[in-house]
Amino acid sequence: MATRRAFLRCLVGLGAGLLPWQNGILPKTAILSSTSTTNQEQQWTKNSEAKLCFVVVSDIHIASVDAIRNFTATFDDNKNSKLDAMVVVGDLGDGRSRDYCTLNNELAEHKGDIDYPIYWAIGNHEFYGAFYKYGLWSPETFPNRESDAIAIDRFLKQANRDKVYGDTWVNDYHFILLGSEKSCMSDMSYTDAAYLSDTQLDWFQKALNNNRSSRPIFVFLHQPIPYTTLGGLQQGSVIQWQKLNAILSLHPEIILFNGHTHYQLDYKNMVSRTSFTIVNSSSLANPLDRNEKPIMNSAPGVVVEVYNEKVVIRGRDFLKRDWISRTVVTFGTTCC
C-alpha cells in the first residue's frame, strides 16, 4: 500500500513528469491538455477501465427558466454515461420551499435518466429564504421569520441526511460532504461565509483518520478556503478556514471541490494546489469569465474518472454536450 507521502510525490500532470509542488496555482504546463471535439452533441460514457466515474456541478440556482434548462441538460448529457454518482456542491436555489419543489419536479420528470445517486452539499443560498417575504425579494424585512434551523431543515429533507455534513463510499472511494451550519441570520458578520463548528471539524478529522486506504479522498464544500484559488488572490469564504486548512494539509490525497465563485473552467481557474488539491466546479447556472462577466448559454461542470494509476478531471459543458477546451487535469498515483 502506498503511503500518503508517496501519493504526493507521484502526482503528475499531463506530459509534465514529476511536479515540484508549490503553494498556489499549478504550472500551466502541468495541468493543460487542449481538448476539442469535432462533433457537438457528442455522447460521452465512462471509460471501461475506470474504477470510478462521477460528475460534479455547483450553483444550479434553480429559480429561472435558463437555470432549469441547464440543470436538466446534465441529465440529458449524462444519460447512458454509466456514472457512479453526481455531486451538487451547493446553491440549489434561494432556500425557498418553492425552489425545492421546482428542483424535485425536475428530478421526478427525469427519473428515467438518473440511474446514479445524487449527493448534495449546502451553499450560502440555501439560507437566502431570509431575504424573501411572501415569495418576493424583501431584504428590508430580513430575516422574514426565517432562521438557520428552518433553512437547514429544508436542505436536509432534500439531501436525506440528518446533518449538513456527512460521508459515504462510492465504489470503495471516500466521499465527504462539508457545509455551513450558520449564516448571517445568526451573525451579520458571517455574510455568505461557511461556518464550520468544532463538532463538524472534529468529525471531519476523525473521518479522514478512519480511511480504509491511501486512495484519493473526495471532499465537497461550497465555499472556498481563502487565498487558494486564482493563484492565491481569491479571498475565501470559510470562517474557520485556518483549522480546516490545517486538517486538509495533513492529507495530500484529498481532492477538494468548491463552488461559490462561479468562475469559468480554464487553466487559471480550474485547479490549484497547496499540500492538497482544490478543484473549482464553476457554476451550472451562471458561469463568469475572468472579468466576472456572464458566459451565456453554457452549463459547465467537471467529470472525474479514477483509474488504477491516475485521476483524470475534465471540464464539461453539459448544455453544449461537449468537452471544454484546455481543461484536462491528470494526477498520477500508484495508490488508487
Layout: helices, strands, pairs:
Blueprint: H1 4-9, E1 12-13, E2 17-18, E3 24-25, H2 28-31, E4 52-57, H3 65-78, E5 85-89, H4 97-109, E6 118-121, E7 132-133, E8 136-137, H5 148-159, E9 166-170, E10 173-177, H6 198-209, E11 217-220, H7 241-248, E12 254-258, E13 271-273, E14 277-280, E15 300-306, E16 310-317, E17 322-332
Parallel strand pairs: 4-5, 5-6, 10-11, 11-12, 12-14
Antiparallel strand pairs: 1-2, 3-13, 4-15, 7-8, 9-10, 13-14, 15-16, 16-17
What would you say this structure looks like, in words?
By secondary structure, this protein is of the alpha/beta class. The chain has one domain (4-332): Purple Acid Phosphatase, chain A, domain 2 (4-Layer Sandwich). The chain is 21% helix and 23% strand. The protein has seven helices and 17 strands. The chain has helices spanning 4-9, 28-31, 65-78, 97-109, 148-159, 198-209, 241-248; strands at residues 12-13, 17-18, 24-25, 52-57, 85-89, 118-121, 132-133, 136-137, 166-170, 173-177, 217-220, 254-258, 271-273, 277-280, 300-306, 310-317, 322-332. The protein has a seven-stranded mixed sheet with strand order 3-13-14-12-11-10-9, with helices on one face. Strands 6-5-4-15-16-17 form a six-stranded mixed sheet, with no helix packed on it. Strand 15 and strand 16 (310-317) form a beta hairpin. The protein is globular. The N and C termini lie close together (10 Å).
